[in-house]
Every structure is written in structure tokens, then in C-alpha cells.
């Protein structure tokens, strides 16, 4: 009788604890799902990291372990691509500090919001820069409310630039040299600043 009880307990534990493995095509994220827990080993393509991947391990226990993978994904603002004046070249801006939520079609928050603080724009390692002629415009395609545009030179704020809302453009009325442009933006999901490097010829 005792042996039978022990075998039943072992069988129940195996059922509750045995994970089913799944690998995703997002860069190689692995998910181990059991009735009592879920382990996610993130390995997603992300150019914001030097390795080119976001890597982390999450552990979720019952009853918070039954959501799809998208529910657990790191809440991040939208990517922003900056285009040159004739829109033949573009670079991806770095995502800086943000406060971001997941919202439904009616803009109701459906998940806990994320807040992240980044280093100051001059301390970010920029892989690429955009070369622009003096007084030319740069463009973006995101639907966002631009609240401020700062220019950094020699590691400090040098000046602010104006924004042409109807064109989604910024005129770079700057002298020759290298600058960091910081765009402060608002979306329905939250606020974020983006930064990127330009060379003015």
C-alpha cells in the first residue's frame, strides 16, 4: 500500500513538473512549460545589444505560467529609423530612457508598465551615423508626438532644434561636425527618448 502511494505521488509530480520544450524563431528563445512553472531562456535578435541578441532567463510559477510567449516579452518602445534628406539612407536610433505600457485597441493598459533608465546620450556606443549636408532635413515615419529635440556636442546639450510635424522632419541647421541628436517622444503607450549620431558636412 505504501509503495503504491509513493508511486502515485511520483507519477503526479512527474506530470506536474515535467516540462515541454519549445524553440522559437526569434533568434533561438527556448521555453520550458510544465503545469506548475514556465522557464524562458530569451535569445532574441536585438541590435541594441553589442552581441546582437537580448539574452535573459525568466522563471514563472503557477498560476502565472499559462500565458503565451508574447505576454512575457520585454515591453519596449517602437523602433525609430531616421532617414536622410532624399530618403535613400537610414539608421536605427538608440532607445533611451522610457516608460512604456502594453495597451489594447482602446488604449487601455493590459499589462504592467515598464520603466527603464538609460545612460546619458553621449555615453551610448553608436554603431552607425548619418552623414547630412548643412541645413538639410532628416525624416522619420513613426506616429508619435515629438515634444523636444536636443543636440549634444562635446558631451553636453548644445542647442534645441525645431520639428516640422506635417513632414515628420527636422532641419539640421548646424555647423560642420559630429553631433548627437536626441528626440523626446510621446505615444499612446508612453514616453521615450531616442538618440543617434549625425555628421554634418
Describe the structure.
With 201 residues, the protein is mostly beta strands. The protein folds into two domains: 2-72, no CATH class; 81-200, Immunoglobulin-like (Sandwich), CATH 2.60.40. The chain is built from two helices and 15 strands. The strands form four sheets. Strands 7, 8, 9, 11, 12, 14 and 15 form a seven-stranded mixed sheet that branches. The mean pLDDT is 88.
Helix content: under 10%
What form results from the Cα inertia axes? elongated
- Report the radius of gyration as a whole number of Å: 23 Å
Helical/strand content category: mainly beta
Note the main attributes of this structure.
201 residues; mainly beta; Immunoglobulin-like; 2 domains; 7-stranded mixed sheet; 4-stranded antiparallel sheet; 2 helices; 10% helix; 44% strand; elongated
Summarize this entry quickly.
This protein has 201 residues and is mainly beta. Helix content is 10%, strand content 44%.
Secondary-structure map:
Blueprint: H1 2-17, E1 20-23, E2 30-33, E3 37-45, E4 53-61, H2 69-72, E5 81-83, E6 90-92, E7 94-100, E8 114-116, E9 129-132, E10 137-139, E11 145-153, E12 156-160, E13 169-171, E14 177-187, E15 190-200
Parallel strand pairs: 9-15
Antiparallel strand pairs: 1-2, 2-3, 3-4, 5-6, 7-8, 7-15, 10-13, 11-12, 11-14, 14-15
Amino acid at each position: 500500500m505504501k509503495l503504491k502511494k509513493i508511486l502515485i505521488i511520483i507519477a503526479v509530480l512527474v506530470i506536474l513538473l515535467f516540462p515541454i520544450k519549445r524553440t522559437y524563431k526569434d533568434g533561438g528563445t527556448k521555453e520550458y512549460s510544465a503545469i506548475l512553472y514556465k522557464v524562458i531562456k530569451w535569445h532574441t535578435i536585438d541590435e541594441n545589444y553589442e552581441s546582437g541578441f537580448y539574452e535573459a532567463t525568466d522563471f514563472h510559477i503557477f498560476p502565472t505560467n499559462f500565458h503565451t510567449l508574447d505576454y512575457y516579452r520585454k515591453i519596449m518602445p517602437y523602433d525609430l529609423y531616421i532617414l536622410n534628406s532624399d530618403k535613400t539612407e537610414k539608421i536605427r536610433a538608440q532607445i533611451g530612457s522610457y516608460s512604456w505600457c502594453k495597451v489594447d485597441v482602446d488604449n487601455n493598459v493590459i499589462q504592467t508598465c515598464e520603466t527603464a533608465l538609460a545612460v546619458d546620450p553621449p555615453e551610448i556606443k553608436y554603431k552607425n551615423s548619418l552623414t547630412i549636408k548643412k541645413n538639410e532635413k532628416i525624416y522619420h515615419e513613426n506616429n508619435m508626438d515629438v515634444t523636444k529635440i536636443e543636440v549634444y556636442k562635446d558631451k553636453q546639450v548644445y542647442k534645441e532644434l525645431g520639428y516640422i510635424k506635417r513632414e515628420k522632419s527636422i532641419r539640421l541647421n548646424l555647423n560642420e561636425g559630429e553631433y548627437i541628436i536626441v528626440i523626446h517622444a510621446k505615444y499612446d503607450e508612453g514616453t521615450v527618448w531616442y538618440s543617434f549620431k549625425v555628421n554634418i558636412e
